[in-house]
Fold:
Amino acid sequence: MSPWLAGTLTNLCLYIVVAQSWNLIGGMAGYASFGQVAFYGVGGYAVALLMLDASLSFWVALPLGACAAGAYGLLLGLPLLRLRGEYFAIATLVAAAATQALAAWQPDFTGQGSGLTITTVGMRQTTPYLGSGGFALLFACLAILSVALVAGVGRSRLGYALRVIRDDERLAGAVGVRAGATKLRAFALSAALAGLAGGASAFRLITVTPGQMFNPTITVLTIAMVVVGGAGTAFGPVIGAVLLTALTTGVDAILPSSRNLVLALVIVGAVLLVPRGLTRGGQPARLPAGPPPPRPTRRGALSP
Amino acid sequence: MAGALLNGALDGGLLGLAAAGFTALWRVTGVLNLAQGALVISGAYATWAVAQSAGPLLGICAAVLLGAVLGYALQRGLLNLLPRQPAYLELAGTFGVGLVLDALATLLFSGDYRSVSSIFGATDLVAGPAQVQAAALVAFACALAATYALHRVLRHTRFGLALRAASVDHDAGRLAGLPVPRLFAIAGSLSAAAAALAGGLLSLTGPFTASDGNQLLVLIAAAALIGGAGNLWSAFTAAVALGAIEGAVGYLAPAQLTDDLALAILLVAFALRALGARGGARGGAGGAGGVRSLGGLP
Structure:
């Protein structure tokens, strides 16, 4: 396999994993997280730290990094999952920014703004660098794992509970779904998946920096992929990831300087043109259209 | 320390104007415009570009005009087309628009820091232990005046009345003959103009670069959420308080911690509201209508 092909395949599989991670909480439970990149970054930093300071092998550090991200998800989810809709989205966005600030600030062990560099050569290397083919294989396994996980959750009791929460959280309580615990489980699972992607990316990139591991564009790209493919389905995000990879690869070949611009335009285009997803999976984010619920009418609706 | 607090509060006033625009649009249309930070930076660049040849005053006018046009286009071209969709689509869409603006600014102006030299130059005013830039004081006054103007427009004009009526019930508004999409577009335009004006004022008081938009957005959104949906003055005050805290923290500890503080304050604000009788943690999941039942405002 040529390095170029392996690199493209790696990117594709990375996109699939992060898209599935968002899909678990945003697509299935309807809790649109705008801070998913925080878990990606925590996973990446955890792997880098474990390999550097604890001299662990990458194969031990990666699952531990995913656990760290999952635990961080639990920690953030406890307060944040009590919020809904826009409040949840903004709070997660702020939480991701705060996590980035922590990584950039904590002076001793995160290397501040310049980040960390994993040792990949010499005596102190813990795991030999995998090379382009090795990473393609690793990320392909992770992508398959993530698709299987989402497909499995979708058929499980957890998946049904999440969909009830998405469609009507009060109804969920009425039919015996413990909404709080269910959401928290899905959020932690989603965080662990993002951490897995981040951890593997950290080893691939060798150097992790706060600006790169916590770039909010990753979150929004993820959302765009899931939106294009169809939220809440197991294969929608895969389609979204394939389309996005094809597009970014094309743009890199033709106009490398305007990559960010094209990515941003893709996000806007995805929202405008295919809001329900190509597979029509994300459609029932609420109950079928009926008359809108009566709104409280009171005097002075706006009090600026 | 007092100086740091005061300067931070003055800087926070500029964010407060942007947050007031953000929260006004939120209240009226139920949309959180995540492009607000990028709109601030666009305003700053517009001011910078025009001020090179025509002076800072015309630069600010250009910024307001650009903001108004961008806001109108954003509302008409994107947000009015997404009714009754999950809220995250609007959020992703507006964030995407912000990224487009950021990317355009980076392509056009590169990533260098820029600033506009104002008519006040580097004059400093000394009041007791505090030292304040004259330009920052004037900018704060402008932001305060603009927030008041926005408040007046929404509260005491026929346009504001029509807008509030349309926001309470789109369909009834339409039946009553209100041009709802256009009203919302004008609201978006006002909100974005406020952001761009804040950006113009920002460019007069300090250096800025294309990548500042995201951090501004986090602070604007935090201020608006702490203030509660739709309350212009609470948002403004929250932004001033955040600015003051940012100043104090920057004085005592590394400046990067501001975002952590914003989060901590946000969580405390949510906790307080959740403890109150009408919690902020209620409302429809992702529903555009949900936001109007939030906030617990009279």
